[in-house]
Amino acid sequence: YDGKVLGRQELGISVSLPYSVTAVNVSSIVTAETDNKVQVSVRNRSSKTSSRPVTVKLISLNGLARVDGPLQNIGAIPAGQTATANFIFTFPKENAFKELSFETQVLEGGDWLLGARKFTVNSSRRWVFDPSSSGLVVFSSRGSGDRLDASSKLTGLVFDYWDTQVEGQLTTEAATKYLGKKIALLGVDKSLGSDSARAVEAFLDAG
Question: Does this model's pTM top 0.85?
Fold first, then answer.
């Protein structure tokens, strides 16, 4: 009134996105230089069928992985229904033992961002026997691989890695490939079971 403010009301507006990423199915530990699969489930939470085709995008947030076919068209989703998109990503062994960060985005018509979800996965690499290596290191903790890589760069010694979270228990066949070399058990705990113990015993008995 007469240029004066007689009252003030603040309004809060909450916007609910019509799509939700209800599940991201991926291995808890992914491996370098292999095809790692991701399945993304998208639910239409609205009361109407999608007016335009729905696409799902998978993005590597920290740039450590490469997504093959990062944009998947899953068509129109009926109200209350769920559809899935499947992706494959790879990464070089230099990025093993690091945390890989991703975001999955849901778009309608290819341009409207109407849903998103971030997730991270731990990474490792598969055992490969290298005859020129100094030996084998067996470990199970996620941080061990990082430390081993750093130590190799400092000392110039190259070891093969056996990650029990990926390979399972050490086998006698694998252990005896390192006769005349070294086998180191890093962070021995309950994850190294009797099979690994027998493999190490066979290695020691063989001299």
Answer: no
